[in-house]
Design brief:
InterPro entries: Bact_Lucif_Oxidored (IPR050766), CmoO-like (IPR019949), Luciferase-like_dom (IPR011251), Luciferase-like_sf (IPR036661). The protein has 330 residues and is of the alpha/beta class. The protein has a single domain, classed as TIM Barrel (Alpha-Beta Barrel), CATH 3.20.20.30. Helices cover 43% and strands 15% of the residues. It contains eleven helices and nine strands. An eight-stranded parallel barrel has the order 1-2-3-4-5-6-7-9, surrounded by eight helices. It starts with 5 loop residues before the first strand and ends with a helix. The mean pLDDT is 94.
Length: 330
């Protein structure tokens, strides 16, 4: 690799065919413990709601569970969808997490609902416009963690005075401008929304203003990686991921399915085109193939950190994929 980048992982606790939420969470813990041994920097968990086959809806609870089952890997939110929550509640939750696991908690913040509009309304009760308050809610959250709030009438305990890194998550250029303005690290969801990735990170770097947390731009890109001993094996393993995205595109969601020899029986040309567009930032293959693909990607984008999500049905093959990737980037 021409440039050393930090390596991390994103997990949604996806339910596999034949499994349930409990087995999904157990798989997440298994991944966390394994990649911690490999030397990955962090594992993030993502907030989603009203999705039958994703078990990460109570994100802060799951972060605490994973942090308690590991020893030093950073664990955080990728992200907490702040419009769904009162900033004070998030300050208290993450203040508690940081108190329990000092120096190991990240707070990634997103503006999207992480669900459909009806569920968003159920989460937000009678305040449907909270997404428009995203930047002010982040500043309110920062206030709760600040020592300067010791004279405030509303304070967060635990939380006040704790140094928890904030991240702005994004899948569009809007978030790039906000992350730059606030001087926060920027994590882009290229694993499912790659279209504006390069434009967004260029804008972020161009407009970045230093802050107490960060003196220069820091870009994390989340991508899909499926690694195996051979390209052929990796492409077969990847069919589980493609069938998952097919379910999203056609609104026919199912548990993560076992791999199949070919995707041809499962999608039409139109659906394939939509899935390929969503998964344009996907890297599949052996160590040699991934080394070439990722070296080019890292060089072109200038990212500081690569976060991988690897939706592989077989847990052994999934762990092996994380190991191969770590060897490629070492």
């Amino acid at each position: 690799m021409s440039k050393q980048v930090k390596l991390s992982a994103l997990d949604l606790s996806v339910v596999i065919e034949g499994g349930d939420a409990a087995t999904a969470i157990a798989r997440t813990v298994d991944v966390a413990q394994y990649i911690e041994q490999l030397g990955y920097k962090r594992l993030w968990l993502a907030e989603h709601h009203n999705m039958e086959y994703i078990a990460s809806s109570a994100t802060s609870v799951l972060i605490g569970h994973v942090a308690g089952k590991t020893t030093h890997i950073r664990v955080g939110s990728g992200g907490v969808m702040l419009p769904n929550h009162a900033p004070l509640a998030i300050a208290e939750q993450f203040g508690t997490l940081e108190t329990l696991y000092p120096g190991r908690i990240d707070l990634g913040l997103g503006r999207a609902p992480g669900t459909d509009q009806l569920t968003a309304m159920a989460l937000r009760r009678n305040n449907p416009n909270t997404a428009y308050h995203f930047s002010s809610d982040i500043r309110e959250l920062q206030t709760y963690f600040s020592n300067d709030n010791s004279g405030g009438r509303v304070r967060a305990f635990p939380g006040e005075g704790l140094n928890i890194p904030f991240w702005i998550l994004g899948s569009s250029t809007d978030s790039a401008f906000l992350a730059a303005e606030m001087g926060l690290p920027y994590a882009f969801a290229a694993h499912f929304a790659p279209a504006q990735f390069r434009t967004a990170i260029a804008l972020y770097k161009q407009h970045f203003k230093p802050s107490p947390q960060l003196d220069k731009p820091y870009v994390l890109a989340c991508v899909n990686v499926i690694a195996a001993d051979t390209d052929e094996e990796a492409h077969v393993l990847a069919t589980s991921m493609y069938r998952m995205f097919l379910g999203i595109v056609t609104n026919t969601r199912r548990p993560l399915s076992p791999p199949v020899p070919s995707m041809d029986p499962y999608w039409s040309p139109e659906v394939e085109a939509a899935v390929r567009q969503m998964t344009a930032c996907t890297f599949i293959g052996s160590d040699k193939t991934l080394a070439a693909q990722l070296s080019r990607f890292i060089e072109e984008t200038g990212i500081n950190e690569l976060m991988t999500t690897s939706n592989i049905y077989d847990q052994g093959a999934r762990l092996k994929s994380y190991r191969i990737l770590k060897e490629v980037l070492s």
